[in-house]
C-alpha cells in the first residue's frame, strides 16, 4: 500500500475543485483560489494535491530525457509518433504534447504549492501543531523547487510565480533569467532541508524528507556548475561542486540509506521503499480513482506484451535502445539482462532490435487498466548519490580523493558482476552512470551537465542514425521550445528559445 499515492490522487478532487480547467493553462491563463481552510485536514488535503502533480514525472523523464539522449534511437517504423521529433531534434516540436505537458503540469504543481503556502500564511494557525505547520510549509517549498528545477532543465528561462495570481496578473509575467529562478529554487530547498523530518511514519511514506531536499540541493548545485553553452540554459558555469558534495555527504553519513546487494531487487515490486530509496513517486493499483503508474510500459512495444500473452499497454511501436549502449555491457553485467530485452517473436515475426524493459514484471501486468501499474518510480537513490559524489570529486569538489572515486565506482561494478578498475576518469564515470541508470531518465541531464554533450551526441548520431532521420545536433537543442500554446496565449510575452 502506497499511502501518499492514495492521498495524492484520491483527495485531489477535494481540493481546488473550482480551478480544474484553469490549472491546465498555468501560467498564462489561471484563476486563483481563495479557499478558506478551517481545519488541519484541509491543509493536509491541499498538500496531497501538490504531490499529485508528480504523477506524470516518470513518464516525462523517459520521454524528454531518456528519449532525447543517446540511450535510444527512437525512429518509428509504424507511423509518426510524438517521440520521434524529440529523439530526432526536429525544430517543429513546440506543439508536441510531451513538451506541452512538461510546462503545464509543472506549473500546475507550482500553482498548488503557492496556494498552500498562501493559505498557511493566512489561516495556518488553525493547525494547532506548530511542527506540522512548518512541515507542510517545507513540503510545499520542496515541491515548488522540484517543479521549477524540472522546468529550468528543460526550458531554461521561465516565469517566476511565487504566490497565487489572477489570470490578468499572469499574462504580464515574463520569463525570468535562469539565475533568478535558481535563487527561488535554492531558497526553497534550503528551507526544506532545514525543516523537513528525517523520516516519516509508515502512514506518510512517500513524503519528502530532509535528505530528499539535500539530494535535490546537490543536483541543483551540480547542474548550475555545468557549462552555459551560451544558451541561457540550466548551466551557469559556476563551480559549486563543493556545495553539492557537502549535501551528498550529509546523505551518505546519515546512516538512513545503503546499497542493496542485488541490483534487480532495487526495482522489485515486492521490495519498494528499500534502503536505496531516498525519494520516489508513489503509486498504488486497484483503486478508484486510478492512482497507478504508466511509466513501466512507456519504452516498451505493445507487441512484446502480446507475445507474452498480455494486453497492449500503450508503448505502441518499438523505441530501440542504442546499440553502442547495449554493446557497452559485458557478458557478466547483470544490469543488461534485467534492463534490456534483446529480441522476441510475435506472430511469426522476429524483432531483433533491443529495448529498455527495466520496470516491467510480466507477472504484475494490470489485467484491466494499463494506467494502473503498482510500482513506484525512484527519483533519488543511494547509488546515484554515491556516483554524484564521485563526479563532484573529479570536477574539483573539496573533501574527496581519487581513491574515493575508485571505491565508489568499484562498489557499483562489483554489484553488477564486474571486476575492479583504478584511476577512474570522468568519461569512465559518465559511462558507468549510463549503464547503472539506464531507463531512469537521467542520461540527457547527465550529458548536459557534463559539458561533453557537444561531442558525444554528434558522434553518436553519425554512428547510429542508419535511417538518416535525425537532424544535426546543435547546442540550442539542449533546451526544448516554449510550448506554442503559451506563445499564442499572449503574443509577445515570451520569446521562443533559439533554434525553433
Instruction: Give the name of the CATH architecture of the domain at 3-273 and 451-489.
Output: Alpha Horseshoe
Radius of gyration over C-alpha positions, nearest whole angstrom? 22 Å
Uncertain segments: 6-33
Mean pLDDT: 92
Report strand %: under 5%
Side by side, the strands of the main sheet go 1-6
How many strands, which pairing sense, and closed or not: the largest β-sheet?
A: 2 strands, antiparallel
Number of helices: 19
Account of the protein in words:
Strand 3 and strand 4 (349-351) form a beta hairpin. The chain is mostly helical and 500 residues long. Helix 6 packs antiparallel against helix 8, helix 6 (130-155) runs parallel beside helix 9 (210-224) and helix 10 (241-252) packs antiparallel against helix 14. The longest helix is centred in the N-terminal third of the chain and has 27 residues, at 97-123. The protein has a two-stranded antiparallel ribbon. A two-stranded antiparallel sheet has the order 2-5. Strands 3-4 form a two-stranded antiparallel sheet. The protein contains 19 helices and 6 strands. It has a domain at 3-273 and 451-489: Serine Threonine Protein Phosphatase 5, Tetratricopeptide repeat, CATH 1.25.40. Residues 6-33 have low confidence and may be disordered. Residues 91-222 form the SusD-like N-terminal domain. It holds the Pfam family SusD_RagB. Belongs to the SusD family.
Amino acid at each position: 500500500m502506497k499511502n501518499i499515492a492514495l492521498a495524492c490522487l484520491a483527495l485531489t478532487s477535494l481540493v481546488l475543485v473550482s480551478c480544474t480547467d484553469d490549472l491546465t493553462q498555468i501560467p498564462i491563463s489561471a484563476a486563483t483560489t481563495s479557499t478558506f481552510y478551517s481545519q488541519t485536514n484541509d491543509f493536509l488535503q491541499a498538500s496531497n494535491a501538490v504531490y499529485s502533480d508528480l504523477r506524470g514525472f516518470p513518464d516525462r523523464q523517459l520521454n524528454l530525457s531518456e528519449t532525447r539522449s543517446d540511450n535510444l534511437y527512437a525512429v518509428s517504423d509504424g507511423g509518426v509518433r510524438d517521440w520521434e521529433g524529440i529523439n530526432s531534434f526536429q525544430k517543429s516540436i513546440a506543439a508536441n504534447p510531451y513538451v506541452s505537458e512538461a510546462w503545464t503540469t509543472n506549473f500546475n504543481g507550482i500553482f498548488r504549492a503557492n496556494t498552500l503556502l498562501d493559505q498557511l500564511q493566512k489561516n495556518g494557525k488553525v493547525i494547532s501543531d506548530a511542527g506540522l505547520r512548518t512541515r507542510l510549509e517545507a513540503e510545499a517549498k520542496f515541491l515548488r523547487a522540484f517543479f521549477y528545477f524540472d522546468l529550468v532543465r528543460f526550458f531554461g528561462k521561465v516565469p517566476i510565480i511565487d504566490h497565487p495570481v489572477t489570470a490578468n496578473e499572469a499574462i504580464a509575467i515574463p520569463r525570468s533569467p535562469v539565475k533568478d529562478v535558481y535563487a527561488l529554487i535554492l531558497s526553497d530547498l534550503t528551507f526544506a532541508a532545514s525543516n523537513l523530518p528525517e523520516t516519516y511514519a509508515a502512514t506518510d511514506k512517500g513524503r519528502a524528507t530532509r535528505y530528499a531536499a539535500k539530494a535535490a540541493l546537490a543536483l541543483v548545485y551540480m547542474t548550475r556548475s555545468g557549462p552555459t553553452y551560451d544558451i541561457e540554459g540550466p548551466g551557469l558555469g559556476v563551480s559549486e561542486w563543493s556545495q553539492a558534495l557537502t549535501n551528498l555527504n550529509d546523505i551518505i553519513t546519515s546512516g538512513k540509506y545503503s546499497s542493496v546487494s542485488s541490483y534487480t531487487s532495487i526495482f522489485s515490486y515486492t521490495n519498494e521503499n528499500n534502503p536505496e530509496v531516498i525519494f520516489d513517486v508513489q503509486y498504488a493499483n486497484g483503486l478508484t480513482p486510478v492512482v497507478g503508474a504508466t511509466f513501466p510500459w512507456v519504452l516498451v512495444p505493445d507487441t512484446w506484451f502480446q507475445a507474452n500473452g498480455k494486453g497492449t499497454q500503450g508503448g505502441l511501436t518499438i523505441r530501440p535502445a542504442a546499440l553502442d549502449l547495449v554493446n557497452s555491457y559485458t557478458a557478466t553485467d547483470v544490469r543488461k539482462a534485467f534492463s534490456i530485452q534483446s529480441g522476441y517473436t510475435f506472430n511469426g515475426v522476429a524483432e531483433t532490435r533491443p529495448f529498455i524493459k527495466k520496470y516491467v514484471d510480466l507477472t504484475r501486468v494490470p489485467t484491466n487498466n494499463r494506467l494502473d501499474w503498482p510500482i513506484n518510480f525512484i527519483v533519488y537513490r543511494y547509488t546515484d548519490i554515491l556516483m554524484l559524489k564521485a563526479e563532484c570529486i573529479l570536477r574539483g569538489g573539496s573533501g574527496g580523493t581519487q581513491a574515493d572515486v575508485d571505491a565508489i565506482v568499484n562498489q557499483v561494478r562489483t554489484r553488477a558482476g564486474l571486476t575492479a578498475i583504478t584511476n577512474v576518469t570522468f568519461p569512465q564515470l559518465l559511462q558507468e552512470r549510463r549503464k547503472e541508470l539506464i531507463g531512469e531518465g537521467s542520461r540527457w541531464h547527465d550529458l548536459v551537465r557534463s559539458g561533453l554533450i557537444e561531442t558525444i551526441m554528434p558522434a553518436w548520431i553519425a554512428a547510429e542514425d542508419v535511417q538518416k532521420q535525425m537532424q544535426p545536433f546543435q547546442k540550442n537543442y539542449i533546451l526544448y521550445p516554449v510550448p506554442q500554446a503559451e506563445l499564442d496565449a499572449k503574443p509577445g510575452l515570451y520569446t521562443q528559445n533559439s533554434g525553433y
